[in-house]
Amino acid sequence: MKIIEVENYDQMSQAAANYIIEKVKQNPTLTLGLATGGTPKGTYEQLIKDHGENGTSYEKVTTFNLDEYIGFSGEHPSSYRYYMDEQLFHHINVPEAQTHIPRGDSKDMEQECVRYEKSIDDHGGIDLQILGIGSNGHIGFNEPGTKFGAKTHIVTLDESTREANSRYFKSMDEVPRFAISMGIASIMKSREILLLVSGESKKEAMKQLLCGEVTESFPASILQLHPNVTIIADQQALAEAKDFC
Ligand code: PGA
Predict the structure, then answer these.
(1) Residue 218 pairs with which residues in a beta bridge?
(2) Where would I find the beta strands (DSSP E) of 70-120?
């Protein structure tokens, strides 16, 4: 795993955006895996800024998002489809039909898992997957204990994940308990992975990722076995890892 250390969140966002823009320029038909949450927000802001100022085109780019809450349609303001539309898609020139997010409101969620995994494969797989990491080591919504062999599947969210995400809801009761997520195996099929990590709340997770063993109880640890991972992390996130390994 290659590590790029930056000073803070803004630098992480700028570095990540530059990285993605370069890939899109090299390959205008790039298939990009995308993430939601607080971490990539600044990166998306920078992509939008660059699109406005420099005209980087996403017309032929295809995107696949990692996950979605079950029970929410794309119109729900807390859905990840809504987040992506608001934070990125509506502000760049990617055609909507080329943006893929699991459907959280499908009548048959098992079938939706199969359909989503197949649509990634049918498209030829993901060239560059953007990832964040949960403080419990989750990637996508693959919580600790998820089998490394898992493909797109239905997950029960950890209480720690629900608490971390409750900032986007009026109360804990509103935070969904279930989600659909690309599995670990789906993520590992990506040809390249860009992991973004910022802030003190992630320092234990970074320590475990960089210094710990590969174990299903810490899902992100599987990334140690991927041949092409770049991590852009800020100093706060790297604080513990530097001292211990
Ligand atoms: P965050 O979430 O970017 O909101 O910290 C990351 C994650 O849970 O994967």
Answers:
(1) 215
(2) 99-100
Q: Could you tell me how many helices (H) and strands (E) the chain has, helices first? A: 8, 10
The Cα–Cα gap between 112 and 153 comes to: 9
Are 65 and 39 in contact by the 8 Å Cβ rule? The answer is: no
Model confidence pLDDT, tens digit, residues 195-224: 999 999 999 999 999 999 999 999 999 999
Q: What is the pLDDT of residues 149-195, one digit of tens each?
A: 999 999 999 999 999 999 999 999 999 999 999 999 999 999 999 99
Question: Ligand 1 centre from 164 Cα, in Å?
Answer: 8
Q: What pLDDT is stored for residue 96 in this prediction?
A: 98
State which ligand 1 atom lies nearest to the alpha carbon of 35: 9
* Buried b / exposed e along 180-206 (16+ C-beta atoms within 10 A): bbbbbbbbbbbebbbbbbbbeebbbbb
Q: Which of 39, 80, 138 to mutate to test the pocket of ligand 1 (most atoms within 8 A of CB)?
A: 39
**From CA 32, how far away is CA 11, in angstroms rounded?**
21
Q: What is the DSSP letter of 157?
A: P
Q: Is the pTM of this model over 0.85?
A: yes
- Quote the DSSP letter at residue 159: H
